[in-house]
Amino acid sequence: MFMGQEMHLRALTQDDELPLSILLDSTFGGPDMYRFTRELRREEAVAMERVAFDDKGSILGYICCARMVLPQDWWVMSILAVSPSHHERGMGRELVVRGMDHAKRAGAKAVIVIGDARYFSRMGFSKLAASRLETKMMPEHTLLYPIAPGTGMAQETLIYPDAYAHLSEEDLL
Which positions, given as ranges, span the membrane (predicted)? Predict the structure, then answer.
């Protein structure tokens, strides 16, 4: 539930491509994140894509997780987007919570996110749990959602899908 409304969530379909590109362009101010999504798909790194939609079928939000190269069986939350008209209503939080439930059911051992610790810590991500991870990609903004026993505080080297090489720090935050 977000702001007293039920949020509908489903897997992305072919018919969603144009509305998704519009959502990502309007949320992130240009086509870079939609291109990033396509690169993740080309690389066959996508673990999950879900869209949030209203009663009319309009796409209002999107979450995409990719499989990490290393550690295997770990995911990275690659994109979280909420339509600017629906910011500050709890939809992003609901997308993350449901996305992490899906990650658990799908067998992911942990999920990484590069983002705002104040925001993502409210949904179970932890800077402390990620504190022993080795990464060259914005370690100060890396958080971990541990799922399997032993993943919190794990000492691992993070290797992201190749598509991440084309992102800037502005894209990630």
Answer: none
Strands 74-82 and 110-114: parallel
For the stretch 98-152, pLDDT in tens is 999 999 999 999 999 999 999 999 999 999 999 999 999 999 999 999 999 999 9
Q: Which residue has the higher pLDDT, 166 or 5?
A: 166
Q: Which of 81, 90, 84 lies closest to 6, judged by CA?
A: 90
Cα 48 to Cα 43: distance, rounded to the nearest angstrom? 14
- Residue 89: the pLDDT is 77
The rounded distance, in Å, linking the Cα atoms of 54 and 62 is 12
The Cα 1–Cα 17 span in angstroms is 25
Q: Domain 8-172: state its class.
A: alpha beta
Structure tokens at 114: 């590069």
Hey, where are the domains in the chain?
8-172
Nearest-angstrom CA–CA distance, 77 and 138: 14
> How are strands ordered across the β-sheet holding 59-67?
8-11, 46-53, 59-67, 74-82, 110-114, 142-146
Assign 111 to helix, strand or coil.
strand
